[in-house]
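Quick question, first post here. What does this chain look like in 3D?
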Amino acid sequence: MARWCSRPIDTGHPRLMLTPLVLGPQGVPVVTDAEQAKAAPEVVVLSAMAHGQGEAGEAIGVAFLAAAAGLDEERRALYGDLVLSSLNIAARRTLEAMMKNNYEFQSEFARSYVAKGRQEGLVEAKAHDVLTVLEARGLEVPAEVRERVLASTDLAELDRWIRRAAVVSDARELLVADGS
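> Answer (accepted):
Ran it through. C-alpha cells below.
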C-alpha cells in the first residue's frame, strides 16, 4: 500500500509531478529499547502500530511501558490504548501475565492502570457481597435495590451496606436508612 501511495501523480500540468511523502512500515524503526522509547514516545507508538503484530510486539510493549512514565495523563492514556490495540495477542498475553505474576512495573502508567483495575474489582466484589448477604438471609432483592447497589462506586457506602444487609428485615431498608 505504501509503495502504491508513493507513486508520482501526474497533475496534467507540464513539468509538474506530485510525489507524495509516504511513511510505510519499513520506514518506522522497531523500538524495543526503554531509553530510546523514553526519548521519543511517539516513535514507540508508531513502532507498535507498524510492528506490534510481529515478533517484536512484546519488546515494543515493554519499551512503551518504560516511556509512559514520563507522559502526561492524557497522552499516556491515548498512547497506551494505541499501543495495546496494536500488539499481537501473544504480546498482550505476556504483558497481562507479567501483571498477574506480581511483576512490579517501573512506569507510573502501568502502575496506575493496575491500581485502577484492583479498585474496580474491589468495588464490584463488595457490591456482590451486599447482594449475597441479603439473598443468604432469604430476603427478596428488588430490581431497584440490585441496580443501585451494583451502580455504587463508593467503597465506604458499600461497606455500610454490607453491615446493614446483615440486620435489615427488608432489602429496601438498606437504601432508606442510608438517606437514599
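The radius of gyration is 26 Å.
Strands lie at 9-10, 17-18.
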